[in-house]
Structure formats: C-alpha cells, structure tokens
Amino acid sequence: MAMQPLTQAIHDKMANDTGTGGLVPMLESGASSIFMYAPVPSASRRPFVVWAHSSTAHPVDTKNSSGREVTRLIGCYDNSTGTYDTVEAIAERIRYLFHRQILTVTGYTMILAEAHGPIIAPADDQMTDYVRMVTPSTPVLAPFGLLVPVRWILTD
C-alpha cells in the first residue's frame, strides 16, 4: 500500500534515524516498531511508535496559493513497569526529529514544523478512541504512552 506524501516523509524521518541516540535503536524491534496505521498488530513488541491519521487538517489558502495545516499525534507506547525512562526518551527523540525540522514532502513546500509535548496519553479503554485504536488488546502489562503533537503547514 502506497503512503501519502506527508505520511511517507514522517515515516522516512523516523525509520532513518538509526545512529547513536537515534529513534530506531531505542525500539526493541527497530524500524518494524514504527506503525502508520491502527490498530497496531496485537503481536507487536513494545515499545512502539504509532500515528494513525491526522488529528486536524485545515485549509491554508491565500489569493495566490493553496495549502493546508496538518496536526498529527505521534504516540509512543511501552509497558508500564514503574519507570517511564524508555517511553520518555522515545517521545523526546520524536520531538527533536520534528520540531522546526523542515521535511521534504513530494508535491508540497513545507513552511512550518512545530512539535509540542510530550504529553501523557490516556491508556485505558475508558478514555479516548485514539488510544483504544492504538493499544493492543493483549492483557500483558498495561501500556503507558506519551503523545507528541506535531503541526505542519504545507503549500502546493
């Protein structure tokens, strides 16, 4: 399945962060722990990173150009083992990868990249649909997650 240009750029940025201190070495299963869809397969090893869709997408049009503002929530999940060090390091790395970092997106010019957080992701089934979608249903250890909201403005 082909990815849309922004999704491809986000995936490539994370999957190619392989050096010392990079995102991929922090994930036990490497780049195969980066998901662009939900639900995440229940057999997936934690920690993992997931974003399923845009949380917001608005037109940013002017008289002479068209574009859009897109915000995605990038979730970082691990087992709750009493320490948040791993998931926090992953979330901080994701923030570093995207805050004020212009991506090459086929067919678009990126004019803004802004990452916030990380913020705590609700992680039980009584909370948001987003977390229900991304959290595997296996009753191992309760997931702990952080979200990194990232906002991009692109013009065509």
Task: Supply the CATH class.
Answer: Alpha Beta
Helix/strand class: alpha+beta
Which of globular, elongated, flat, extended, rod-shaped describes the shape? elongated
> Hey, roughly how much beta strand do the residues contain?
25-35%
Using the coordinates shown, work out and report the CATH topology.
Answer: STM4215-like
Major beta-sheet overview = 7 strands, mixed
Report the C-alpha radius of gyration, rounded.
16 Å
Query: Which stretches are poorly predicted, pLDDT < 50 over at least 5 residues?
Result: 124-141
Order of helices and strands: HHEEEEHEEHE
Q: Treating each run of at least 4 consecutive H or I residues as one helix, how many helices?
A: 4
Structure description:
The structure is a single chain. It is built from 4 helices and 7 strands. It is an alpha+beta fold. It has one domain (5-155): STM4215-like, CATH 3.30.2000. A hairpin with a 7-residue loop joins strand 3 (54-59) and strand 4. It is elongated, with a radius of gyration of 16 Å.
